[in-house]
Design goal:
Elements lengths: L17 H8 L3 H13 L6 H14 L18 H25 L8 H4 L3 E4 L5 E5 L3 E2 L9 H11 L11 H13 L9 H9 L7 H17 L2 H11 L1 E3 L2 E2 L1 H9 L8 H9 L4 H4 L5 H20 L5 H4 L20 H16 L4 H6 L2 E5 L3 H21 L1 H4 L2 E9 L4 E5 L24 H11 L17 E3 L4 E2 L1 E2 L2 E2 L9 E2 L9 E3 H6 L4 H10 L1 H11 L22 H12 L3 E2 L5 E6 L2 E2 L8 E2 L3 H18 L1 H6 L4 E6 L5 E8 L2 E9 L22 H9 L4
Parallel strand pairs: 1-6, 3-5
Antiparallel strand pairs: 1-2, 4-5, 6-16, 7-8, 7-21, 9-14, 10-13, 11-12, 15-18, 16-17, 19-20, 20-21
Helix pairs in contact: 6-12, 6-14, 8-9, 8-10, 12-14, 18-27, 20-22, 20-23, 20-25, 22-23, 23-24
Length: about 700
């Protein structure tokens, strides 16, 4: 018996579960696909009539294989219509690809730092080159400063259609790709725009992807940048051999002159180097010379052909312009490194330049250093070193000589920093390491004349004059208004003269002229050690070099550098006005001025006080060197010694220039403690510091 099971009743609307009703309301997958396609194709609806017309032709292009009506191998070959359709489609796809690639290519915002890095050039005070620093030899030049003939020599050699092409050469790119891909070789074929892009945005790798990116950027750059700016950038970033980048450095490296001084013949030789300096630098061999001459002739002939050089002008250049055998560009070394160190530090500070900005280069730093004074000073120290090695060989092993000449207006004219910066980076002219000794006495004298003395605690100041009398005897106890001055060990502090000599009652002017110590230790106490300190700092000594504020302050326990000591004495020569010492007078970057904070004079001591100090120093010089003083009446100066014989100084002025020299011994490998001189500084009658000072001042 067979049972019949009735079919379930159809659910009426509103019946069934909520989830089931949601599922029923959803469109099927096919329905969704149809809807999506309809939405996507809706914008193309106006093209439907044209599509219907083209449909028969499209069906003909559809390959049918084997082809009917053909025999043999022809049955499997596409028809001519199919060939044309395939080619047109390929061109269309290629065009779409190139348009898309162009639209998606951006000109990089960050330039290749190596390609834009330049060197910094330092000049003597007379404007002649002194030194250069930097990883590359490059100085950018504005296009207006590059002669037209030089520009066209380069264009004739590299890209004569530069001003009319779109930034790329299709023929050149095709040839380069064929050489790179087909033969595994490299080929140029680039316009100047492409070469500039490669220099400043990309790498030098010869790959298909790099060449394609280069072309895209070149096209876009050509639309956004003027041709002149592109040419300027190219001329300033291209490699010319001999370690130089840019036409300015190339002109100096090969012909020892600025690019503005090149003639068209020399420009043609330099333009030939762009093809490869390793092959076309004529100084590298006979084969190179032959190639260079041939290319030089070809470039000049090309300039005639494109109308940038007249045949008459071309006829003048029949002899190849031989370049210099070696690169004459100035490098640092020995003394110039110390000068560069000082000037670089000052340039960054006064020009408000960060280390990063300065290291990118392009700066022309015009220093205050006098070439002749620097040579005279350096030669004098070299002679002294040689003599010391012969006469006192043991002491000479640890000998140090620091010296500096500073003008009354603050210009540092010369320094001696050491034997060679590459072996001793320690700059002896700028080092605060040894005490000033009795070379400090003029500052005590100036403080007394400027501020007077106090005989009672808190009482009014009593004026002091050069004729004021003090006790010049040796071993005189130092007193205060309350009585003798006691040190921390419970002993009375007493002043000592060199050699234990006593002078009796002596005026302050005579005491300074004869370097009598005891009056000035007492004068410092009477004036106030705080006033002595203030006067020394106002005159140019740095606060961190001033010694402890005890009676020995007046005897030179401060440790000024030679530069600062010279600057302090220059204050007296400037009538009491002090100008901070500076080593750079002007800075430009690629010809444009850089704002520089130049120091201005400020009053340190009164003009009468400065004159009184100078008069006493003049007396000192006359007493010690009467013969020289007879021929140079305006010279003022004095020697400086220390109680423990660890330093010997000479400082003085002549014709508004101050020079300070210090000689000392120190074993830098062990400590920064000065050692006894052991005869290194000579005798008081024949002082090595004085000989160096007189040479620097042009007296010896």
């Amino acid at each position: 018996m067979q049972l019949r099971v009735p079919a379930p009743p159809e659910p009426r609307p509103g019946q069934g579960g909520r989830a089931e009703r949601r599922r029923d309301a959803r469109p099927s997958g096919r329905q969704r696909a149809v809807e999506t396609a309809r939405r996507l194709l809706a914008p193309l609806a106006p093209l439907a009539p044209y599509a219907r017309r083209l449909a028969p032709y499209a069906r003909r292009l559809k390959p049918v294989y084997p082809r009917p009506g053909r025999t043999g191998w022809r049955r499997w070959m596409p028809s001519w219509r199919q060939w044309i359709g395939g080619v047109l489609a390929s061109f269309g796809l290629l065009g779409a690809f190139l348009v898309t690639a162009y639209a998606m290519t951006d000109i990089p915002s960050n330039l290749n730092s190596y390609a834009t890095q330049q060197d910094n050039v330092f000049f003597w005070s007379d404007g002649t080159p002194m030194a250069r620093t930097g990883w590359v030899q490059r100085q950018a030049m504005p296009l207006k400063d590059i002669p037209v003939n030089v520009r066209w020599a380069v264009l004739a050699a590299e890209n004569e259609s530069f001003y009319s092409d779109p930034g790329i050469s299709v023929k050149g790119i095709t040839r380069a790709l064929y050489r790179t891909v087909g033969e595994g070789d490299t080929e140029g074929g680039s316009t100047i725009t492409q070469q500039y892009v490669k220099n400043v945005y990309l790498t030098q790798n010869q790959t298909v992807s790099r060449k394609f990116t280069e072309a895209m950027i070149a096209l876009k750059l050509d639309n956004k940048m003027s041709k002149d700016k592109i040419l300027e950038g190219y001329l300033n970033t291209s490699w010319f051999g001999r370690g130089t980048y840019g036409i300015q450095r190339a002109a100096q490296a090969y012909y020892g002159k600025d690019v503005s001084k090149l003639n068209v013949s020399q420009a043609a030789m330099l333009a030939g180097l762009l093809k490869g300096a390793g092959l076309y630098d004529p100084t590298l061999g006979k084969a190179n010379h032959q190639r260079a001459v041939a290319r030089w002739k070809w470039i000049l002939d090309r300039m005639v052909k494109i109308g940038k050089l007249s045949p008459q002008e071309r006829a003048k250049y029949t002899t190849f312009p031989e370049p210099l055998k070696t690169n004459p560009l100035y490098n640092t070394g020995e003394q110039s490194d110390y000068l560069v160190e000082l000037a670089s530090s000052y340039a960054k500070k006064a020009g408000h330049l960060t280390d990063k900005q300065f290291d990118l280069g392009g700066y022309q730093i015009y220093t205050t250093f006098d070439r002749k004074r620097e040579k005279d000073l350096t030669d004098a120290v070299a002679k002294a070193r040689k003599q010391a090695a012969h006469s006192t060989p043991d002491a000479a092993k640890n000998a140090h000589y620091g010296a500096s000449s500073v003008a009354a207006d603050g210009r540092i004219l010369a320094v001696y920093g050491g034997p060679d910066h590459r072996t001793q980076g320690y700059n002896e002219s700028n080092a605060a390491t040894v005490p000033a000794g009795t070379a400090f006495l003029p500052f005590v004298y100036a403080a007394g004349l400027e501020h007077g003395v106090h005989t009672t605690r808190g009482g009014p100041a009593t004026p002091v004059t050069p004729q004021s009398v003090y006790d010049g005897d040796d071993n005189i106890p130092v007193t205060t208004p309350e009585g003798p001055y006691w040190d921390r060990s419970g002993k009375k502090v007493a002043a000592r003269n060199d050699g234990g000599k006593s002078y009796g009652k002596i005026t302050l002017r005579q005491a300074l002229a004869r370097s009598v110590n005891t009056p000035f230790m007492q004068l410092g106490m009477d004036t106030g050690l705080d006033q002595v300190r203030q006067t020394a700092e106002a005159s140019g000594l740095l606060s961190d070099s001033i010694g402890p504020q005890v009676p020995a302050l007046s005897m030179g326990n401060s440790t000024p550098s030679a530069i600062r000591m010279a600057s302090g004495y220059a204050t007296f020569a400037a009538g009491g006005n002090h100008t901070e010492p500076y080593s750079v007078g002007r800075i430009t970057r690629n010809g444009a001025p850089v704002a520089l904070a130049t120091p201005h004079p400020r009053r340190a001591v009164g003009a009468q006080v400065a004159q009184e100090v100078t008069d006493a120093l003049t007396d000192s010089f006359r007493a010690a060197h009467p013969t020289t003083a007879a021929g140079r009446p305006g010279v003022a100066g004095k020697a400086g010694t220390t109680a423990d014989d660890t330093a010997a100084w000479y400082a003085g002025t002549d014709d508004s220039v101050s020079t300070a020299v210090v000689v000392y011994r120190m074993d830098l490998a062990k400590s920064l403690e000065p050692l006894p001189l052991q005869g290194l500084a000579g005798t008081s009658a024949d002082s090595v510091p004085y000989r160096l000072w007189s040479a620097a001042m042009g007296l010896g």
